[in-house]
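Troubleshooting log. The previous structure file for this entry was overwritten by mistake, so regenerating from the original sequence record. Sequence copied from the archived sheet and checked twice against the printout by T.R.
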Amino acid sequence: MRSLKAFQVVASEIEELYRRTRGVIQLMSEANKLADGWIYEFLIMIENDLLMRNSFEMINA
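Regenerated output below.
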């Protein structure tokens, strides 16, 4: 009976760890989406700003 109880305790700990890990993965996914959006907006800002675009072109020339 002790081994069954020990197994149940370990199983619940594993389930909790799995739940937390999935939460972290979800947060990382959302952070990546936000970062992608920020980068996209920044690139559009550079493309639409003539002074910034010319500066970047001069740097890359």
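Helices lie at 2-48, 50-60. Archived copy saved in two places this time.
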